[in-house]
Design brief:
313 residues; alpha/beta; Rossmann fold; 2 domains; 6-stranded parallel β-sheet; 10 helices; 32% helix
């Protein structure tokens, strides 16, 4: 997959693409319905299959001080899109210039002039342009005039639940990762590079892999059953574990820490990139009277997580 952060002088082999257009935070099943239609059409007509998105997310640009809400990083998104068969990923910088671009100008300058799109596939709730002035109707009308076609994909639902990033975030904040997984089509994954922590876990018999929480949304704080994928190196593979996402009140910490303990594993993986699937919430974060009480509870949490994962979590 080719990644483009700018649209000037695009090579001809990515122009004239079938483009799936959206933010795709989380790549849930509604997003996958858009991508699947775009992929099929691209293959049918012999055109490149491309994705158009923005970074940062518009919500981050307009509300930079709002709480974090991201479900995935750009790195994760790009990797998942490549695995799905995307030929080209266009990532536009969402800045003042883009925020103030009229919807009509975006279509004519970006989609037509720069990308020469052949077909656009997008979701039913697509809004774009200055003050969100453009929608699917304008896109279809301009497409007919400019020589490209448009497919608008309807909402995807399970029962009454709309597959939306907003509802998924609500489930995660409530400590319901399995409900989020039903809408995502996969377990929510947190990724990052293993960093050197204070090594307190190692001193009490439960070494942890520590990952910077970054811009991920804040879930229900506490302990989770997890699966940890080590992506490279001598220990590459997937392992069962337990993780704490919280502020560690026993040690009077304030910053959210993400610490995963991998069962029966004690190798050095500092600097390795890991992806952690959040399977099930075990208990809320709590403050303990001392190290012995903390160790006893961690041992119980480990057994609870093993039981959960053994049942096919």
């Amino acid at each position: 997959m080719k990644l483009f952060r700018h649209l000037e002088n695009l090579p001809e082999d990515v122009r004239g693409a079938v483009v799936a257009w959206g933010n795709y935070d989380g790549l849930h099943q509604g997003h996958m319905a858009v991508l699947a239609q775009a992929k099929q059409m691209a293959r049918d007509i012999g055109a490149p299959f491309a994705v158009l998105t923005t970074e940062p997310h518009p919500r981050q640009y307009f509300n930079p001080d709002a709480p974090n809400f991201r479900l995935m990083t750009l790195r994760t998104k790009a990797r998942e899109l490549e695995a799905f068969g995307v030929d080209a990923l266009f990532v536009l910088t969402f800045d003042e210039a883009l925020a103030n671009t009229l919807a009509e100008d975006f279509v004519s300058q970006v989609l037509v002039k720069s990308m020469n799109v052949r077909h656009v596939v997008t979701g039913f709730n697509q809004r774009f342009g200055k003050d969100r002035g453009g929608g699917t109707g304008l896109l279809q009308n301009m497409g007919a005039a400019e020589g490209f076609s448009v497919t608008v994909v309807d909402a995807v639902k399970t029962g009454e639940d709309l597959h939306s990033s907003t509802l998924i975030r609500d489930h995660i904040r409530a400590g319901h990762p399995r409900e989020a997984a039903k809408l995502l089509g996969h377990y929510w994954r947190v990724e990052g590079k293993v960093e050197m922590g204070d090594q307190r876990g190692r001193t009490i018999g439960f070494p942890t892999a520590n990952v910077d929480w970054g811009d991920y949304l804040e879930p229900a704080l506490g302990v989770y059953a997890v699966r940890v994928e080590i992506e490279e190196g001598d220990h590459a593979g997937t392992y069962d574990g337990v993780a704490n996402i919280g502020r560690r009140p026993t040690f009077d910490k304030e910053i959210i820490k993400f610490e995963a303990h991998i069962f029966d594993f004690d190798a050095d993986i500092y600097g390795n990139h890991i992806a952690v699937e959040i399977i099930e919430f075990i208990r809320a974060e709590q403050k303990f009277d001392g190290i012995d009480a903390l160790k006893a509870q961690i041992a119980k949490d480990c057994q609870t997580a093993k039981d959960i994962l053994a049942k096919g979590g």
